[in-house]
Amino acid sequence: MPTVVLLDVSLSMLRRVKTPDEEFIERKQLAVRGLYTFFDFLSSKFKLEFSALLAFSSLWEIVVPFTRDYEALKQGCITVDTYDKTSFDNGFSGVVGHVIEEWGTSVPCQVILVTDGRTASGQGSLRELLDGKRTNTLNPDQPSPFPIPFPCKIHVVCIANPNELGANLTLFQRLCDSTGVGGGVYVPDAPLSIQSVQNMFTRLAQTHYVSYEGTLSCGHLQSKITLSPSPDFTTLLETSKKAGGQERIRRLPNELSICGFLDVADIGNPPHLSRHLVIPISTSSADGKEKEGSKDVNKDSEEDGKTPCFCVLLHGSLKVEKMVAIVSLDLDWFGMLYSWADSKKKSNLVLTTFKPGEKITWLGNMQKLGPAAELETNPYQPIDNEEGETSPFPVMRSQRRSYNSQANLVWIKPSGLQSDVQKLLRYAKRLPEKQGQFYKELNRLRRAALCYSYVDLLDVLANMLDKECAKANSKVARQLKHAAESLRVAPSMELNKAITPLSD
Amino acid sequence: MEKEKETPPLKRTVIVLDHSPRFFTLSKQHIDFDSSGKKSKGKSSGTTGGPSSVFKSFWTCNIEAAVEYCRIVYDIFSTDYLIKVIVSDNDAHVLNSWSQEQQCIPQLLKAFAALRAPMEENEDESSIIPGLTSAVECLCEPQAHVQTLVACVSDALRQQESETSSSKSMTPLKFTDLNVVHVPLTGDTGKITEKTIKTSSSFSTTVFSYKATQLVSKLSTMAQKHFNLKSTTVTGIPMKEEQHSGSSANYDVEILPSKKEASATSKDTIHLKWCTPKTTAAPELQACIGCYRITPVEVNSRPTACLISFLLQGRQVMLEQPKKSGGKLVSHILASHGGEIFIHCLANYRTPMEDPPSISEGCGGRVTDYRINDFGEFMKANRLAPCSWNKKKTKSPLEKGLARLERCTRYWPMVISETVVGNLMQVIYRLQAMESRNDPLPISMAGIRGKGPKREEQYRQVWTELEHFLEAASKTSRMHEKVLECLRGASPSSSVTGSPRRETPTDEIEGVSQSRLSEASLSWQEIDKYHSMTEREKSDFNHGDTNNEHLFKRALSSPIPEQAQKKLRTDNQTMFHKQNGSKGENSASRSKRKNCQ
């Protein structure tokens, strides 16, 4: 997931510390050296992850917007200037603004606050931010960045000796805990030095940046894969946990097993929880089994490129056939694999995970999806004389939604009733040929009037029909008279007893 | 009252309506018709209607409001939220149960119709109290967690009583929200002030006062508030005009989706613009971050009906949102799935997946002869469908799917160059072509003294043998039957669907053999290679010690456990058989020929 480094560039970051080598070094310098290590770690292991560098003091600025160019990020660390005092409120407002502008509110991010261990006081202080008591007189219109509106893990990196922190440590921990996902406060081992700060950043990176390595399988066809961005469902599911209900910890299984396939037309844009690129990795470099016969395997990537890979085959076929593969992730948790096009030229295999337990109503209960070919009759059958075939989807739900039926009349707006009455009179004028429709309309109105106890309407309708009698020939007039009479007595009759035409 | 066995849903609502005779007086709400049934010009409200004005009684207004409230909730939340309606006069009349069959509008309307008009003389006995008591009983029935109790009551004087009577038996309820709606009747003078009374942490009462004319819209708003819905308007829907054919005008339709859909905007309604759908749009997967059931606000209006029927036909509608930077962005899709209408919210932002590495640079990216089409066939043969599942007796359908894929992939080469077993029909066509060109058959001449049989005879023998083999194989495999029909000159495609289903083991793996059939069109490369061979190579090939042998070794040395091979008998082995068999038969025929000589 994308990372935002929020670097404190207040004056206090210029305070010098004495390193064990008897040298004096600014805290900001230490922070920059640490960040170098951090960015180097990411660039070696997470080439596809995006990171951004934001600097804040009493104001904030985007130093380097989200990028995969780690050199640019490192450069940004050096070029950023130092300003006045720390305002956490503004700093986090900057983070929230930038993340939402780029990724919206559904992409989980990690925020790494790099500061000198001071929490500031008064306006814009960390305490004020956490307590929600804002006295932000500078930008009264600016909404509070808390609670963070996107799934987020916050880490705090203090460029300070552990003994300097005191009570601030608890405050920083509160900040990390505020998103409920378990970021951590990182303090370098004493004494402060370039080495100890770098070690601390490495510790953070190794703990919170873990790549997924697993197997994608379809029966015996398999491929070692990694996912990008790395799946982190604790961060993602935190939001749904807040919404209610206990959510157990979800982790992607090591083997992503395809249990069958569906047509894109049938899957119907189900909502997703997360999306990941599925990238095949070399079997030879992957640890573990399958060592037999691999002695001679040339670890050259050239060789990997020439070895057939199931991922590539699957992607090609999914793309050509416009299909998706359904992957079972847990008993009640599913995902799908499909070909996703970033641009017109390029497409990739992508894994989309659904929310655990989510019901995609038109697919029915996903736990009950089984091989169509093993059913009594295969629901996929070619349609005669046409291209295409039948499909068991969508699974029909109840047809009792109010919009499914024309029978439910609602006369909340006068125009609704007026047009219904007009329709009846139109048919009345075109009797006898519209007799069927006339009686159908008549009964709809009668039924609705009785249901809503709108009895007076029946009389008015009867009167209108009486008036029509005058203009009609005797045969039609007989029908109309009969209809009018039937309406008048309707309140004392059974609801289900429809008015039927008078037989000749 | 029947008890529910299902787990109680999150929210239950009981609507209690006062059915005392006083409600049968006419309200000011009326609809005008002039004699011809056309709309009268004057605004209906406020004016005393003409001769064709039909006034609604207070009771009618109450029913309309209650039904509209229920309609919204039933449409959007099928099973999560339940509503019961109770009518109270001198007794409580419960109009529907908690069961799914009765949680619908037709049930309510039927029950409303069945109510008799209250007796004037019962006026004194008639009260909201029995209804409220009954409501509380209903809510407590299956230890439900009730959050809302909506009551439309008429008279504020009764409010105090009702509160006490309800709160006494309220204990098992987690939280109760009593909404008292006062509808001032004609001639009512007493002023009721709207207020919220918080009695305890688990019980709160809010008093509203709505005129009969406002009741429906107010209750609709109340439903939006109670169930967290956000009004959204689809704007600019082009519709053909009935009167002026050929012309079209733009309409707006207001819908109600769950509020979760809407981004944090404070506006009353969100406007989304209709994008006329492309006619040729192939289904494409959109990145959807949320999907919510909707219901139209005016379900009977013509524009609504138009939009709804468009959607129910299976068309999708893209909706645009104006962007801050100007320009527009498709942000939502309206679509129906199985008779229900949903709004899908699309992810409109950058994705961390952008600019992905090219497949050709990754693992397996340099391989160019993947059996893409064959795997496509494989996928089609392994599509999923809803199944029944007896949890005690059988494997879950998903396990069946996994097992099936395991069976079907025991031997499945991923690239064309690794497979020859394949398109038998193509082989037949090529043989025909060779015969018509009078090419010699690539049969080994070793061991045959003299000239051997004539070409014609060779071909005859090949065809006879092929037919015999296929006839035997077609008894157990549909795809072999197809090939046989091809051999005999019938159109192979016509027979696929027509052939009766056989209960043979191959049915399960038919899909594989099907893909096999089409897969080796490129195994013809093999034959082409043969044609380009020198005589020496040809004879080597025919002796079966180069390419052929190599292919066999490849196939057999693939890591299939013995057991698997056994199970695959009807599929792979028939294939192997074919090759082995034809070899064997070749030698057999050779010896026959020897005998002839």
From TrEMBL, chain A:
Residues in Integrator complex subunit 14 beta-barrel domain copies: 209-357
GO terms for biological process, alphabetical: snRNA 3'-end processing
Domain of life, per lineage: Eukaryota
InterPro entries (UniProt xref): INTS14, IntS14_b-barrel, IntS14_C, VWF_A, vWFA_dom_sf
Occurrences of domain Integrator complex subunit 14 C-terminal (ranges): 410-503
Residue numbers spanned by region Disordered: 284-304
Compositional bias annotation for Basic and acidic residues: 287-304
Compartments where found: Nucleus
Keyword Protein transport set for record: no
GO cellular component: integrator complex
Keyword terms of this UniProt record: Nucleus
UniProt xrefs under Gene3D superfamilies: von Willebrand factor, type A domain
Residues of the VWFA domain: 3-117
Annotated PANTHER family: INTEGRATOR COMPLEX SUBUNIT 14, PTHR13532
Family membership noted in the UniProt record: Belongs to the Integrator subunit 14 family.
Protein name in the entry: Integrator complex subunit 14
Organism: Acropora cervicornis
UniProtKB/TrEMBL annotation, chain B:
Superkingdom: Eukaryota
Record's compositionally biased regions (Polar residues): 571-589
Keywords, comma-separated and alphabetical: Cell cycle, Cell division, Cytoplasm, Mitosis, Nucleus
Region (Disordered): 486-517, 555-597
GO BP terms: cell division; centrosome localization; regulation of mitotic cell cycle
Location(s), subcellular: Cytoplasm; Nucleus
Record has Cytoplasm as a keyword: yes
Pfam family, one: Mat89Bb
InterPro entries: Cell_cycle_regulator_Mat89Bb (IPR019355)
GO cellular component: cytoplasm; integrator complex
Entries under PANTHER family matching the protein: INTEGRATOR COMPLEX SUBUNIT 13 (PTHR12955:SF1), SARCOMA ANTIGEN NY-SAR-95-RELATED (PTHR12955)
UniProt family annotation: Belongs to the Integrator subunit 13 family.
Protein name in the entry: Integrator complex subunit 13
